[in-house]
């Protein structure tokens, strides 16, 4: 597919040149008659070439490499890698700390995602209520969306201050608790922080979804004598079902993969591995212990989990489109 | 419940719907809703309010007992301490340079890619689209280990380009998907007219499609900027010198110092949040609808 017609492959082979347009267009303009069937077939690839080069070098190549590393010892820092077969994968899969990290990640993700959904839907419905004036709703909406506007690093330092032993949360609760340093509480605490940080995305999406539900559906339900609770279960939820499933899957993918910064800046995975996640576990293996082979094996397992989730997401989106 | 049920068959029902405040029976429902709304506002807003309040305190007052929102030593000293320190200002400059470059490059690359997906049919179209969608689901930690070696080999370790190209990996897939669906919503006759007149694809794209795509481009740009501004893991791993650190890492460095200057940490948090807050203020409408419907619909 990609051989003749000099101008096209040249543009495909060019390294990152997102600023300058692929030359295909200009050549076609100077000689519109000469544009062959093949030229037309290559033109879209020329437009895609910066994207494809970037993805190939910085995404596909690392994935191939990390899968390779997972089966090797002495990689990255050491000049003579050695093929060890599935030994790394077996060592990771039987490591008790990996099991703890896996369990923590599942608990953290599932609780976060469910709470995001419940809070997001509750707030969206409150904000959608016709009983509150438009101005109040706009002000409240801006307040509700706030946690979403702070970067994870800011969220981490803010909550470390709020949760400090002599901090304001202990004062309000009249307690004297080390929220982030007590192994029994740390996982719950970081989960609550993550819930606080993540529900606005659900809220905003569900609010848009609620506003898209045709009013006459509720009208019809009322005429049939449906109570508000019945309306919720028979009109609202079925109408939002598609969005909710999409959001749940998206959030699972994000939360399971992207919790690193929050954990790293609040507990670092401690105390006593009580908040160790797959990402912090992998990061420590690589950049604290320099066990790059083992870390790669762990990273590959993380990738597998994400790919399963992504598979369901893409399948769901396909089903929605048709 | 009964109120609605008995009211339902009456012809006045639509009026009830339009002007619910007139109904006396509605008051319990309104009180209930307001309790919920205020509880939510406290949950969402109080931590932020406390951050703001702490940034104006002296460090000694942050954990004073009992806590107060406003203290007599209210001042902007913490902000001045951040803004007058060149090494901390550098974090901000780095974040701005990286985020702005990422935004511009992502938009240019994504516009071309979206044009290909939207206006051409070619053999690899669907596999490539699927690839771009699935790339979004790759956990950053998975690529981090080999990535480190690749960036070093490309001589981009501890440089702006290293961070910029890295962030484009996370911004491009989303940007392409959003731009493609935006261009799909524009009539094909627009750009086909240019091509029928003998204009090139580039002319059709940049003279016709891009100018009418501005709303889509702005929303993608805002989101791209946010991702780049907020990124943490790769900024931590791909930079080493303090002069290359971005705001999130700078915050962590501030936390790492032996005596916590909480007021300065909070001031820096707020300064570091200003760009995103400003974007939110300007593009609120988009935040509330376009961004998410696009993200969810793909």
Word description of this protein:
In chain A, 70% of the residues lie in helices and 1% in strands. Chain A has 322 residues and is an all-alpha fold. Chain B has 298 residues and is an all-alpha fold. Chain B folds into 2 domains: 2-79, no CATH class; 84-297, MetI-like fold, CATH 1.10.3720. In chain B, 73% of the residues lie in helices and 0% in strands. Chain B has 16 helices and no strands. Chain B has helices spanning 2-7, 13-18, 27-55, 77-83, 86-119, 125-135, 140-153, 160-184, 189-196, 201-212, 214-230, 233-238, 247-256, 262-282, 284-288, 290-297. The longest helix of chain B has 34 residues, at 86-119. Chain B is globular and about 75 Å long. The model of chain B is unreliable at 1-21 and 290-298 (pLDDT under 50). At the A-B interface, helix 2, helix 3, helix 5, helix 6 and helix 7 of A face helix 2, helix 3, helix 5, helix 6 and helix 7 of B.
What's the rounded overall pLDDT mean of chain B?
83
Architecture per CATH nomenclature, i.e. the level-2 architecture of the largest domain in chain B: Orthogonal Bundle
Number of alpha- plus pi-helical segments of chain A: 14
- What share of residues of chain B is helical? over 70%
Q: Please name the CATH topology of the largest domain in chain A.
A: MetI-like fold
Instruction: Tell me what the CATH architecture of the largest domain in chain A is.
Output: Orthogonal Bundle
The CATH superfamily of the largest domain in chain A bears the name MetI-like
Largest sheet of chain B: none
Count of alpha/pi helices of chain B = 16
Low-confidence stretches of chain A: 1-34
**Largest sheet: spatial strand order of chain A:** 1-2
> Which pair of chains has the greatest number of interface residues, and how are they split between the two chains?
A-B, 115 and 115 residues
What Rg of chain A is obtained from the alpha carbons, in whole angstroms? Answer: 26 Å
Could you give the distance between the termini of chain A? 31 Å
What name is given to the CATH topology of the largest domain in chain B?
MetI-like fold
Overall, the morphology of chain B is globular
Distance between the termini of chain B: 39 Å
- Quaternary structure classification: heterodimer
CATH class of the largest domain in chain B: Mainly Alpha
Q: How much helical structure, as a percent, in the residues of chain A? A: over 70%
